[in-house]
Amino acid sequence: AAREFAKQGVQPGELAIISKESVAPYERPALSKGYLFPQNAARLPGFHTCVGSGGEKLLPEWYTEKGIELILSTEIVKADLASKTLTSAAGATFTYETLLIATGSSTIKLTDFGVQGAEANNILYLRDINDADKLVAAMQAKKDGKAVVVGGGYIGLELSAALKLNNFDVTMVYPEPWCMPRLFTAGIAHFYEGYYASKGITIVKGTVASGFDADANGDVAVVKLKDGRVLDANIVIVGVGGRPLTGLFKGQVDEEKGGLKTDTFFETSVAGVYAIGDVASFPMKLYNEPRRVEHVDHARKSAEQAVKAIKAKESGETVAEYDYLPYFYSRSFDIAWQFYGDNVGESVLFGDNDPAAAKAKFGTYWVKDGKVVGVFLEGGSADENQAIAKVA
């Protein structure tokens, strides 16, 4: 959003970014990938925004040069949209003319459900750079140890791969019949589960972690599963989902599908208040229904759309409606997939999804009412990935 404001000619002193994090905005996806590499790990300032989308790296001095104020280590605990004021945990008050809500999501924690022993040391989560630093420290302290990953989604798959690269003995535990069930079909999951198994990762399906035991130092030592099995562990990483951070605005703006309801310009029901990224429920033009999308690609694009709309409103111009094609991707080990569109209707598997294939290449089409609505491809070239986007 800041980059787009700068493009649109924001004046010094017109824009501030308030963040409870202590560093300038960065590319969050790096935390579950390059940040955890055993060699040549990614570190700031290497992955400040917007380097992930092929843009320039916005270092802290970039904001200074543009006259954009970065107000860091500042958590907003109260937002009064009627009086256009924000209050920080330290009691500071900020007033605004236009508010852009980009609060993202918070991690769902096992302590939220009162899971026995879940407050032990080295039961870790991954959302921000502090979490990543804790994980890196734990991996160093428990070198070549045993790691249990709770959850079989994005975070579970990416972190299992990262831990294995760091020479941990890794077990993944998840309740569903296969990994990444929100997107993968059984045929797609067959490949990834087989591939991970071939890398030495143990997969335990159909059960959940019901409790933990710690050692004399308070470090996690044992994971107890609901089916009665017991796993030794020096590190536990939990990736069981997130929740959009909308609490500050409860009762002040219209909500929809778990997010803040916006129009195609990402303006909420309160004039001058915009919501982007994970927290926005926006009209998806392609499918003619409201959607909320948790992905970095939509976070970037919704930010640009909102800023264009804010600037157009000032000058009395109009901007095009947001026309978004859902896009998700992941990389782990030496495999990488991309997905475009919607995974509804009947699925058609193509190519070879044998986990033992020398160079894996396969995909899936989703067909609804005689139309292709979504495409998944593992091992595609840049041209092929563009082609599946076009199909979707």
Automatic annotation (TrEMBL):
EC number(s) in its UniProt entry?
1.6.5.4
EC class of this enzyme? oxidoreductase
Q: Residues of the signal sequence?
A: none
- State the UniProt keywords alphabetically: FAD, Flavoprotein, NAD, NADP, Oxidoreductase, Redox-active center
Q: Does the keyword NAD apply?
A: yes
Essential cofactor(s): FAD
Q: Name one GO cellular component term.
A: cytoplasm
FAD/NAD(P)-binding domain: from which residue to which, for each copy?
Answer: 4-302
Domain of life of the organism in this record? Eukaryota
Q: Which reaction does it catalyse?
A: 2 monodehydro-L-ascorbate radical + NADH + H(+) = 2 L-ascorbate + NAD(+)
Task: Spell out the Pfam families in the cross-references.
Answer: MDHAR3-like_C, Pyr_redox_2
InterPro entries from the UniProt entry = FAD-oxidoreductase/Apoptosis (IPR050446), FAD/NAD-bd_sf (IPR036188), FAD/NAD-binding_dom (IPR023753), FAD/NAD-linked_Rdtase_dimer_sf (IPR016156), MDHAR3-like_C (IPR048618)
All copies of the Monodehydroascorbate reductase 3-like C-terminal domain together span: 325-392
GO MF, one term, reads: monodehydroascorbate reductase (NADH) activity
Stored SUPFAM superfamilies? FAD/NAD(P)-binding domain, FAD/NAD-linked reductases, dimerisation (C-terminal) domain
> Of which family is this protein a member?
Belongs to the FAD-dependent oxidoreductase family.
Please state what the protein is called: monodehydroascorbate reductase (NADH)
Provenance organism = Phleum pratense
